[in-house]
Amino acid sequence: MKKAVIISFLLCSTLCWGQIDYHTKKKKLVEQYQQAEELVRIGNLFKSAEILNEVLNKDPGFDEAIVLLHEVLLKRDEPQRAVALIAAKREELEAPYLNRLLLFQANYAYQLGEYTQAQQYITQLGHEVYGVGAEQVEFLKTSIQFSLEQVADPMPLTFEELPHPINAFEQQYFPSITRQGQLVFTTRDNNGRGDENIFFSQLTERGWAKPANISDQINTDRNEGTASISADGRTLVFTSCNRPDNIGSCDLYVSYKQGQQWSAPELLNERVNSPEWDSQPSLTVDGATLYFVSLRPGGMGKQDIWMSRKEDGEWQQAVNLGEDVNTPEDDCSPFIYLDGQTLIFSTKGRVGLGGYDLFKTLRLADAKWSVPENLGYPINDAFDQVGYCVSADLWAYFSASDASGSLRLKRFKIPENVLPQVETPRVFGRVIDARDERPLQAKVELLNNSGLIELETEGGVFELQKANQVKAKKTGYRTKLVEWSEFITDSTIRMEPFAVGQALLNEPILFDFDSFELKPSVSSQLMSVLELLKAHPELDIEVQGHTDSIGGQAYNQQLSEKRALAVAAWLQAHGIGHNRVFISSFGKKRPISPEVDPQSQQNNRRVEIIIRTVRK
């Protein structure tokens, strides 16, 4: 069950108001009351209740003590005792003090999502509420009415927990997802006391892959979490706390995908980070604009949302989004949608259903934002909604507690009217030379369940569509077939160039002693060479025969030639032209191993196939 809280911006104990004239004439009781106030302030709710009950036994009309005891009972999650206190004291309390109790009770029910009960209490209020301004009372009234209207007309949503092997940790939260379905999230074990780390999982045709450590370059024995990965999967901004180079307690770091690896994290400069707490990043599609949360001064109040742009390779001075977005209360958990215009964020400072609610706002001209709009029920409810992201196919990913207290990753499909219909930015893949990462002009085949899509790269780049496999072909390079789950980690195919003298087989073709007959066990090796030569007509090969050291050189020379001819004849019989196959025989001159033990001699009875020519 959610624990109800007293909203700090709405209600606080009588200690906040600097009371001087108490509703008792007994100095000793005032002293005891002030002692109870201090105990409440430091969180000792049981001793304070004992003292307040003693005070009220001696002076049942001490209104301030009644108000404070009621607050203590609610903070202890004892609403029935709080209700009983209201009933017992209703007749003797002055109206502003009774209104204060009713307001507290309404807020308690509101925080638990018991909106009808909250409405019953709030409608009993008179005009004056002890220690609370009319504007704050109206805020709670409006929030309760809004909540009732939302619950009466809910959006048709289905929430689903992500299946195994996701949710393998005690806690997983603050997800971020790329256009190609790579989900990045923060994990923590040991009942929430363990080290925070960043993990990822890839959504494939067969489901979610087993979550893996995103990089040993990024995760350390410190806390790393609340990460945002750009939609193209190449930039990662994350939060890390208490590192030796920290500017504040928690700062933002950036890492870039280089091939299959993430670069060493870089601490963002003081134009982004501050001596205060900085966290909860969200990157635009291209990774060039960063939204984040900070407790630094210069904002609207508590946690505020800030923004920095990357220009000429440098992150610029962070700016506060201003009162269009931020409030005097906590505003956090920004997520910038794929259109680069729609910002989804969480706040306690606007009319909602309780706790943190999700809102959306649209970026306008002149750094202005549209009036934030509550995303409604059941996207929002009485619980806190923080740490959301939205995929290209409009699934919202988030975390929520289960009955055991574990944080589990879940998702729901975003209704059409919640986010604007935008054209998903085009996604590109690359084909490069594996040696020097030079872009290659190549043919690309995308293989999926509905057939084959054939493309050609331009400057090494091709427009990508989702597939089961991706194949790249180019004259002078070994054809590369890549599974989708491997390919989308960085959307790059690395092609190995052919080179003269390069062996076509990882292992040579072996023969029995004093034999040049092809063994059945070598058929798979021969087929792989055959397929390669048919796929690459630009290659000519040299078939090299060898023997062991047993016998004379002349006999072994003839035997090695017969072995080479046997392989060449097989290839020619299966369609490889005579002009592409050359024969060499070395007898016992080039042993793999000079040793004379049986295994070494067996390894020397072989044929190797190497590239003789690569025609352009």
TrEMBL record:
Subcellular location as annotated: Cell outer membrane
Keywords associated with the record: Cell outer membrane, Membrane
One Pfam short name: OmpA
Transmembrane segments annotated in the record for this chain: none
Tree of life domain: Bacteria
All copies of domain OmpA-like, residue ranges: 498-615
UniProt cross-references to InterPro entries, sorted A to Z: 6-blade_b-propeller_TolB-like, Bact_OuterMem_StrucFunc, OMP_bac, OmpA-like, OMPA-like_CS, OmpA-like_sf, TPR-like_helical_dom_sf, WD40
Listed name of the protein: OmpA-like domain-containing protein
